[in-house]
Amino acid sequence: MGTALAVRDGRARVLADALAAYRRRRRSRAALGAILFAAAVLLAADLGGFDPVRLVAGLPRVREFFSLLVPPIRSGQVIEDLSEWYWGLGKWLRLLADTLLMALLATGLGTLGGALLSFPAAANLTPGPVAYWISRRVLEFARAVPDLVFAIIFVFAFGLGPLAGVLAIALHTLGAQGKLFAEANENIDMKPLEGVRAAGGSPRDEIVFAALPQVLPNWISFTFWRFEVNVRSATIIGFVGAGGIGLELYEALRLSYYDDAGAILLIVACTVFAIDWASEALRGRIMHGAGA
C-alpha cells in the first residue's frame, strides 16, 4: 500500500513539474514575443519619423488645411454661398458617375476572376498540387501590387482614361477576392460534396450543388464590401490619369483650388456613406433570405 502511494505521489510530482515547466516555457515565449513586438514597433516609429512633439506641432496645420476646404457660409446667404461653392456640381456628378461605373465594372470582373480561381486555390477543392500552386501565386501577385501601380502601368500601355482604371482595380480585386473566396471554400462542410459524388455527380456538380450554396452568403458579403473599397480606389487612381472624379480632385489640389477640392471630397464621402448604407441593407435582406 505504501509503495503504491509513493508511486502515485511520484507520478503526481512528475506531472506537476512538467506542468510548471510548460507554464514557464509559455511565459518565456510570451515575454520574448512581447519584447520582439515592442522592438518592431520602436523600429517602425524610428523609420517612420514618428515624433510626438512634431505631431502636436503639426495639428494646427491640419486644422488650417481643412478650413481651406470649406469656404465661409454666411447665415443670411446660405443658398448663394452653397451655389457658388458647388458651381461645378453638374460636371462633378458626371465624373462621379464615371467613377462609380468604373468601380462597378472592375468589381464585377475582378470578382468573377477571383471566384473562378478560388476553387483551385482552395486546398480541399483543388484538382491537384500544380493547379493549387499556380492559382495561389497568381492571386498573391494580383493583390501584392498596389492598384495605383497597376494604374500607372495601364495608363502607359493604353493611355489616359477609364480603361486603365478599370483594369487596375479589377486585377487587384481578383487577387483580394480570390483569397477571401478560397478561404471561405476551405471552411465548407465536405459531406454534401461526398453525397453528390456518391450519387454520380461530376466535379462541376459538386461545386454548383454542394459548395456554392454554402459559400454564397460569404461571397456576397465580400463583394459588397469590395465595391465600397473600389469606389475609393477609383477616386485615388484618377490622380494618375485613370479617369473619373479623381483627376478633377487632383487638379483642384494641384492648383490650390481648395474649396473645389472640399466640395468634391464631400460629394465622394456622401456617396461612400450612401453605398455603405445601401449595401448593408441589401446584404441584410440577402442574408435573411438565405437563412430562411
Task: Quickly list its features.
292 residues; extended; 11 helices; mainly alpha; single chain
Any chance you could write out the topology, listing elements then pairs?
Layout: H1 2-47, H2 52-69, H3 78-85, H4 89-118, H5 129-144, H6 147-158, H7 162-186, H8 191-198, H9 203-237, H10 245-254, H11 258-291
Describe, in short, the structure shown.
The chain is mainly α.
Word description of this protein:
It is a single chain. By secondary structure, the protein is an all-alpha fold. It has two domains: 2-50; 89-291, MetI-like (MetI-like fold). The protein has helices at residues 2-47, 52-69, 78-85, 89-118, 129-144, 147-158, 162-186, 191-198, 203-237, 245-254, 258-291. The longest helix is centred in the N-terminal third of the chain and has 46 residues, at 2-47.
Helical amount: over 70%
How confident is the prediction overall: mean pLDDT? Answer: 86
CATH superfamily annotation of the largest domain: MetI-like
Low-pLDDT residue intervals, each spanning 5 or more residues: none
Secondary structure: number of strands = 0
Largest β sheet strand count, sense and barrel closure? none
Q: In CATH, what is the class of the largest domain?
A: Mainly Alpha
Distance between the termini: 65 Å
